[in-house]
């Protein structure tokens, strides 16, 4: 054995960790994160907007950052609500929902499948930055009695393709250094959906699922609540409101009347407009309604099927050309599919 | 799957997203600290590392997809508060592996005995080492960071990492080869089998 091998053996047995210790410190952290005030987030956001924009994809030259600053004004929406076309689609979707919620019998599960595709940025310098498309599937099995055991399958399928030789090399290098960071298979189980000893599923940025009845169904009041709960956070209030709606709908656990109200609330978001009438996400086609970020570099879309009222998913689209990705590239997307099944893995 | 830097970007806007970084790396940080300063210190330092990291989200260079060097750098700094615990552990390891406790007719377990004897020397060497050298060496050997990662973790140029690591390994090698000499002396008296 050489010196390093001997050193690596020394106190190897001491390097253990109990799940209980990790869970306890996670809980502390989550409490601290929850306590972050809006003021602080706003301060953080303002101060770093330029820095973030510059490094958004790792390869944005200072000139583009300047262009971004100009774009802030150019993209400031003039209207006070969503565009009329977008509002029409959303109101149609809301009307299509009706009052039907999935009905489960004891022993059945609501299966919520989310396919998350994102462009993984690799490379240590802006010049060597490459994007590799990867896929992760999160599948939740929620029992009819929601206090029962929830199952969460997390499957990392790794890269779905390699756009170039450099991308393959960068990925292989990353994988060599940290094996299994994009290919994994975990199953988590937790009573009442309290995964990782967290507080369980929440709606609208932290309202516990069991308190959903207290959330207003009036679209104006609902949007006001969303804006209050996201005040100062995020890249723009409009985008933040849209993402909060998407996050809430993605749980798959929102009752019909609240789903309809959420769509009607999006119809009131200034700057929301139709970005694509034929948006396809994992084989499902719907209408994309998006909010362009003040930096003019990204657009956040929600994709709905107006004829059924289902949210098909969400995506973030790049609006400017970059060396590693042209305008129009979908930086990330999550598709959503909900079914009823008789068993959980 | 997002890279760490993507999670950090998200967390700057939405603090709750930061928990994902914890789920990814808390075990690595905890193990590293536990090995250096014990379980109790590991619990404190792991918690604090992520709280400090969250406070410093703005300073993270998002061109780096892997946040481990950053987190382990914070943990290494926080470990300074637990230097007494670390010293105590090393002292105990040195004492436990003192030469007189080594069984003298253990031919079959020579390798184990070697390692055991080495344990004491490693413990003594680590204790006597300059703390920056010890940090560098252990980030390399226990946390599996590369030179470049360590440079980022300790916020020093890569050349400094190289020279600190060379120095630390040289000291360690010297102590361990010194032990070989001692063992050979012992072996002359038929107490240890020699390795070729």
TrEMBL record, chain A:
Keywords: Membrane, Transmembrane, Transmembrane helix. The chain crosses the membrane at residues 55-75. InterPro entries: CU044_5270-like. It comes from the Bacteria. This is CU044_5270 family protein. It comes from Arthrobacter horti.
Automatic annotation (TrEMBL), chain B:
Residues 121-171 form the RNA polymerase sigma factor 70 region 4 type domain. InterPro entries: RNA_pol_sigma-70-like, RNA_pol_sigma-70_dom, RNA_pol_sigma70_r2, RNA_pol_sigma70_r4_t2, RNA_pol_sigma_r2, RNA_pol_sigma_r3/r4-like, WH-like_DNA-bd_sf. Keywords: Sigma factor, Transcription, Transcription regulation. Residues 21-87 form the RNA polymerase sigma-70 region domain. It holds the Pfam family Sigma70_r2. Belongs to the sigma-70 factor family. ECF subfamily. This is RNA polymerase sigma factor. It comes from Arthrobacter horti.
